[in-house]
Description:
Elements: H1 3-19, H2 28-32, H3 40-52, E1 54-58, E2 69-70, E3 73-74, H4 82-85, H5 90-93, H6 107-116, E4 121-127, H7 154-165, E5 168-173, H8 199-216, E6 223-226, H9 234-247, E7 252-253, E8 264-265, E9 280-285, H10 302-314, E10 317-323, H11 333-349, E11 366-368, E12 382-384, E13 388-393, E14 396-401, E15 409-410, E16 418-423, E17 432-435, E18 438-441, E19 453-459
Parallel strand pairs: 1-4, 1-10, 4-5, 5-6, 6-7, 8-9, 9-10
Antiparallel strand pairs: 2-3, 11-12, 13-14, 14-19, 15-18, 16-19, 17-18
Helix pairs in contact: 6-7, 6-11, 8-9, 10-11
The chain binds ligand H79.
Ligand H79 is lined by residues 22, 24, 77-78, 80-81, 84-85, 227-228, 268, 283, 290.
Amino acid sequence: MSASHRRARRLTRSLLACACLCAAAAPLAARQSAHASPDPAKEARLAWFREAKYGLFIHWGLYAIPAGEWKGARIPGIGEWIMHRARIPVREYEELASRFNPIKFDADAWVQLAQDAGMKYIVITSKHHDGFALFGSKVSRYNVVDATPFRRDIVKELAEACAKRGMRLGFYYSQAQDWHEPNGAGNDWDFKPNAEKDFDQYLRDKAYPQVRELLTGYGPVALVWFDTPQLMTSERARRFTELVRSLQPDTLIDGRLGAEGDYISTGDNIIPGEKQTEAWETPATINHTWGYRKDDVDWKNPGEIVFKLVDIVSKGGNYLLNVGPMADGVIPQASQDVLRAAGQWLRINGEAVYGAWPTPFGEEFGEASAKGAKDLRGSPLFLSWNDYRVTAKPGKLYFTIFVEPRVPVELPPMKNAVKRAYFLANGLPVAIAEKDGRQSFTVPRPILDPMGTVIVVEIEGERVAR
Ligand code: H79
């Protein structure tokens, strides 16, 4: 491929990345400055999260039954939004509960999948915007135990399976939008517009007490994943923070509560262009929906998943990758296959991922367009390069190569001497050459692993000095 071809391909990729920007969270850079001072308690809570890097998001609820279709019509958009998108009245949508009977649900199998995938934590929708709780709640009968023929507490079974297998479990909880409740945010087809609602009544009688239930009835909670902070004043948000901190001081709070959390949540499916020092996480779909849709079979392939994971880790973040189980309790086989294939790569190359530091360089991410081109939103266009990414540990640099290099790979300039280099997968040495003061290595062709070939470069000293 010629240089101009490669450039064109990169350009297409970065445009695609921009086009799917979603408004669920403010831009990362804009929120950076607000968190300047290091907080030791927060850093201690975050220790496991910064190590873990990769988690399984599970969106499951009544929306898995219609699976993107209502009364014979295809309803576009993300599957878990079907009630909103089709303006389904509460009284009609509620009837799905009487049909929710996922007899194939097997919590152990789900946790096994996460483990096979190399994921270190699970986050499940304990209550999404539709208001239906996947746990046995005393606060609202609109829950899996009281309103369905299934009558089993799904969150409890998953919590037990996680505890048994040493998997951390966190809860997504839609704190603001609740389309089932007259005073919850979001439902203006059955109820009054948000501005005329008694939102505090909803918080007091449902959201706060349900979050309390989640933090008292299900063992240690790794994190609470709040979302879409509509109507969330800082005072309303503070009550959630106090609840979480008082009940489980080690539990993390994500970045979408409406007050400062423990880490930054990027927009859905958004991976920032550069590394960030603050802890952060990208929530992402494996196809194009979160909740199951029968018509969305456009799965990312394992190579794309591995690239995104290493890209994210090289920028200091975590990847929370979603699956949408079907109404019978089974996670679509195709998505399981993708996760397990990426997990196979991680079994060999996980040293470059888990607990790894972000890149000490940054040049590998790409370059600003020399021609002053602008992206779709008028920002200067950044041409991202996807040839390789760098992660690090004390005395070691991991170059994960994604595009077979036709020329020697030059190490970015650093003061450290290189001790040796080798393939992570098999330990075979990689020769380092030096020319005009620049060190480089040559990757033999064909490339060892097309999904990502990791070359470990051992350096003098713990960290790169530039
Ligand atoms: O839980 C997942 C999503 O349901 C949730 N965040 C992730 C983690 C989310 N909430 N809001 N959004 C995502 C933004 C949603 C935008 C849209 Fe729509 C929903 C576009 C299409 C459907 C709202 C309804 C705007 C147009 C129709």
